[in-house]
Sequence to fold (535 residues):
Amino acid sequence: MRLNANGLRERGEWERAGFVLPRFDLEKVKAETRKSPGWIHFGAGNIFRVFPAARMQKLLDDGIETAGLIVAEGFDYEIIDAVFVPHDNLSLAVTLKADGSIDKTVIASVTEALRADSRHPDFERLREIFRAPGLKMASFTITEKGYLLRRGPEYAPEVAADFREGPARPESYLGKVAALLYERFRAGRLPLAMCSLDNCSHNGDRLGEAMAAFAGAWTRAGLAEAGFAGYVGNPAEVSFPWSMIDKITPRPDEGVRKMLLEAGFEDVETAVTAKNTHVAPFVNAEETEYLVIEDSFPNGRPALDRAGVVFTGRDTVDRVEKMKVGTCLNPLHTALAIFGCLLSFTKISEEMRDPDLRRLVEKIGYDEGLPVVSDPGIVDPRDFLRQCLEVRFPNPFMPDTPQRIACDTSQKLPVRFGETIKAYLARPDLEAGKLRLIPLVFAGWCRYLLGVDDRGAPFERSPDPLLPALDKRLAGIRLGDRGSFHEALAPILSDPAIFGVDLYGAGLGERVEEAFGEMAAGAGAVRETLRKYLS
Fold:
């Protein structure tokens, strides 16, 4: 069985092997989408293919929608060439359930996969899509760092160049998006929802602020018509709804690959692009998923509420996002990632069988997180936390790794832990200085940055944009060193951009320094320190 339009014609062979195929007419949906595009998504990665695209597939299968969706990739163009072009935009979603059962579903809702490259012919098609009056929604999964316009205090060179040169041929990711939005403005100020689905706090604001920065720069310089900035800033014309997304989507797994081969599925090649993206024709993911979106769509929206997506008010989205990202899931994932790398684990599920690591995340969640949790009303925080700790993380069939989760940790800490610390500081009945395990995670991360595991062996750290700067701060520290590490750590621990607060101002900096010194004392010191703090 080959994953392409021609291969799907042998439906009986697929169905006998346990694969679920689309029930709609692919060519008819493709023609309708090209004529009347309603939804375009930026970011062609795994979570898009197994979650938003799967939700649209359900609507097409049920006859609720007649047009599919279009995906654009503006960072790693190799994804388009590796998994979309050879497979006629089809993907295989492999759902790994905690009971050991597996669902295999061919996703066919994506009708076009385009390069968001202003120097490529695809960009003219993107301009055409943004001029379409019926376009309702542009959504994004471009990761937390995708919304950053600055590198340190200065604008990134490609962003600064786009500010100077205007919307004709932008180079930065969000500059290209802004240029397409300008195309929609010029087509008659057509309304649109710009919907971030990325795992970061108030994600809609991050996207909106970036679009406003480009619109303002271009308008002031006379590179865009005077009304463009006002169009971007008017929610009745362009909205930037907040959202909370939750679905664990690991990299393609070798065990899943072998299972698919045994089932007769031949397209199992995994590629690692030059930008370190791991992709395959299949996507393996957990069964649990949540998507909650602020209901702010000035041109209407796809009927995603009929496919399990929750649309609600901004306050509710804010609370459910804070519950998940700041308390009940993401902080625990980061703690497991850091200590998993230091203790040489390669699966999250294996970590959950380690009594020390399981107790660590239970105490962070129940003892330090829940006292300040944001209760969204639509999901019970304690139940959500229990599901993470007892079902999702321990799922032995989920091949998620601490190494994947450790990517870009410096960009995640302020949201995953900083908001909890701020909540403690704002509560007179609680004392941030008494937090014990969250500071231990920070110390563990600093120890992780040394690139030496608890046995004393070097390991490869996961990609992180701040590694070069952090390495300079920690240069000269070696495993087994003793003494004061204040001079090296203070510039890191006092940086609110990393932790959300100045840890010394919160009464935690000295505690982090102490725990770091204990974990850097020699081989085995990470495990020894972990047990000490859990006692």
The chain has 24 helices and 17 strands. Residues 203-220 form the longest helix (18 residues). Residues 7-312 form a domain with the Rossmann fold fold (CATH 3.40.50.720). The mean pLDDT is 95.
